[in-house]
Amino acid sequence: MTDGTGRRPGPRIEEVARVAGVSKSTVSRVINGEQYVSARARDAVHRAVELLGYSPNHAARTLAGSKANAIALVVSEQGSRVLADPFFAGVLRGVHTELTGRRIQLLLMMSASHDHHDLVGYLSGGHVDGALVVSLHGADPLPRMLHDCGVPLVVGGRPLAGNGDVPFVDSDNFTGAMLAARHLADLGRQRIATIAGPKDMAVGMDRLSGWRRALGERRLPTDLVVHSDFTPESGARAMAGLLTRAPDLDAVFVAADIMALGALQVLHSSGRRIPEDVAVVGFDDSVMAATAVPPLTTVRQDVEQLGRTMTWRLLAGLAGEEGLPPSVLLPTSLVLRASA
Amino acid sequence: MTDGTGRRPGPRIEEVARVAGVSKSTVSRVINGEQYVSARARDAVHRAVELLGYSPNHAARTLAGSKANAIALVVSEQGSRVLADPFFAGVLRGVHTELTGRRIQLLLMMSASHDHHDLVGYLSGGHVDGALVVSLHGADPLPRMLHDCGVPLVVGGRPLAGNGDVPFVDSDNFTGAMLAARHLADLGRQRIATIAGPKDMAVGMDRLSGWRRALGERRLPTDLVVHSDFTPESGARAMAGLLTRAPDLDAVFVAADIMALGALQVLHSSGRRIPEDVAVVGFDDSVMAATAVPPLTTVRQDVEQLGRTMTWRLLAGLAGEEGLPPSVLLPTSLVLRASA
DNA sequence: CTGAAAGCGCTTACAG
DNA sequence: CTGAAAGCGCTTACAG
Questions:
Q1: Is residue B142 domain-shared with residue B204, that is, in the same domain?
Q2: From A22, A50, A249, B257, which residue has the greatest number of CB atoms within 10 Å?
């Protein structure tokens, strides 16, 4: 028998029960891994499932059961699109990896701030068991809105203050930036600038803090700061501004590789040699870093691991696991190339 | 009343029916936009829906109805991850935009070739109404497998020969490459090379064909071809190889911006001035193009539009629309900057 | 440990 | 144009 589309409906739980010689209830128990089932029944069911190629109907499970068997990956469009793209693809891959083999659907949603309301309504309506929110903009109200509606969630990227009880996973941006700035100081540089991210994004502020901390340790001045927005163009503008302000600067920590590309362009056209005149360190170890001119020393973060960890944390929380860390910071490390 | 998670279940169709003073059947008809409903009933239902904030239960609709109210976005991991990342993020945004306001869930799946089988099983099992497959590797068997199982689908990126009846949407890579190569010829360049994509990806072959066509028109030699794999490193290697083979080359069309970055690096270290000695044109107009050194002349494609068009085509097909184009090619255009 | 039965919230012929 | 009723394919107390 085929339906209108030509696809054949698979076997139902009823048929599995008949073949296995047990009731539908028992089949359901085996499939859901409940413990009070005899080994004999369990084996029979497994064989029948195998034989028939049975796969449970998702809609029916969700309707009958008390859980949705689905989680949402929400991308809040606040914050920089440019930073978000490669970041997002990596996170997605991690989420997917972690979900493999579990019968959990991954729903994808995007939300600009003006339609947060609809999204919250949908997510709190029981369509999903929880949500993964990728939100790079620290002041984004979405995480808190979801939290207040009781939707279990994990945020990718540290929220700014005021979201105290929402668990998050983030790269250790502070330490990564500190390593970068220390490296520049170790090279003997005296006038170390930074092109930072926006003030309202935690990722920007954490990288700035790490830079400040390292220079503070070495008693170096921390006056050369320009905020920028994670686009190559803004990186170029920021670099031009810094050169005007401090023609004697001899190093710059750029808070994202993508901005570093713009900065390198400006340094070149100003006639500076890199790293002889100005040493440059980026952040992200993105795919362009190694083929920049010159190849870019940068801080590596593992975005795929970020996605995996978010997913693990959400599912563990849903499963009621005890003693989970409220939040997780993933390690970052310095990758040395020619630019510093 | 709240469930275990603290989320409150919304109103059911029954309550809407009571408030509107009609039967559940009528509410269902109004919500699904059927035509034989009195204006009076329709208004009453709309008011009740508004008043109660009713939103239909997805699982129940799917179970009761004959459609899944969901489509899958499948990313086949065949082909270059590097090219796929920014490409994918743009496609995703387009898909999402096109889905806005329709009650269709977007499921996300990834598949490496070894688990195509499971994926096909899942998708043909009625969990989705159709699939969008992003597959940059022309020889990927997935589109055909899905097609053979009767899953309605649209492929992003032209499949290579042998997938005759699977509808696809692609950028017009041929024309874009032709414009790029013509531009180089118009500049008076005589020894025009190309760093092409892999031979087993349609995107690579189409861009190569366009380059060949333009040079053929102008009676220029088409011997300087190196195949590469869409990574910056391979672009660098290819450029080095070309310089060895033809030290006199005066222009190169690189089939992806990301490879062009590697090529520029090698040209710089070989002492060539760009564009004076060697003119360079890329493809994609990716975010790095404008801040390359020098800024990169390139071919623009609209990846978000690609996602939108794929989605439109799939939904139109599902709705039974007549006279749909089997496939669609989206325009590309030359963006002039300093490198050529 | 197991089965019969109710019920999840919708859609869809069917009869009017 | 409308309503009563059956049914989608599961899960889950309940009773044994």
A1: no
A2: B257
